[in-house]
Amino acid sequence: MKVCKFPAKSKEHAYKSFTDKQNNLQAEKFALVPFNKRIVFAPHCMRNVAVCAAVDKGGYYICAECGGCKINAISKLVKQLNYKALYIAKGGRTIEKIVKKEKPEAVVGIACFFEGDQAFKMLKDAHIALQFVPLTKDGCTATDTDLAEVERVLKQTN
Ligand code: SF4
User: Fold this and answer.
1) How would you write the pLDDT of the chain (158 residues) with one tens digit per residue?
2) Does domain 27-154 sit in CATH 3.40.50?
């Protein structure tokens, strides 16, 4: 299933400004949430589809830690820190469903700026602290992110 609403590049600056502001506003609240009440969403477009062994659960994948992409390191760190879960989401609808089911107190979302913008708007009334980490290479396949930045955000505590 391919779900990618790749937005016009011209809007990226506005999405970046909005997500930067929201990250700053929510950072303190996020840091207060224990690791085991946080979940992480990574985008399916980061997977190395040539080798990916992730388990397809319908709306999302669970990483099998095959070592084929950076989600491998993220999955290992999420387990090491005792996060509630890591989901490789196929789209926004799935994220909404998982959030309703899991009821996390905080979420880390790795995505393009457009999806980050959408996530802050989606979680606005749910009292869930969100920290967004942007993709450094976006698009609909073979995307990338800054692993050091993901690690910094995942480890945030007060
Ligand atoms: S590390 Fe995980 S997400 Fe990445 S290619 Fe392997 S199984 Fe797929």
Assistant:
1) 344 555 556 688 899 999 999 999 999 999 999 999 999 999 999 999 999 999 999 999 999 999 999 999 999 999 999 999 999 999 888 999 999 999 999 999 999 999 999 999 999 888 899 999 999 998 888 999 999 999 999 999 98
2) yes
Q: Residues 42, 88: contact at Cβ < 8 Å? A: yes
Ligand 1 centroid to 21 CA: how many Å? 31
Query: Residue 48 CA: which ligand 1 atom is closest?
Result: 5
Residues within 6 Å of ligand 1 by CB:
47-48, 51-54, 63-69, 71-72, 88
Residue nearest to atom 1 of ligand 1 (CA): 72
pTM exceeding 0.90 = yes
CA 153, 123, 85, 74 torsion: positive or negative?
negative
Pairing of strands 144-145, 129-137: antiparallel
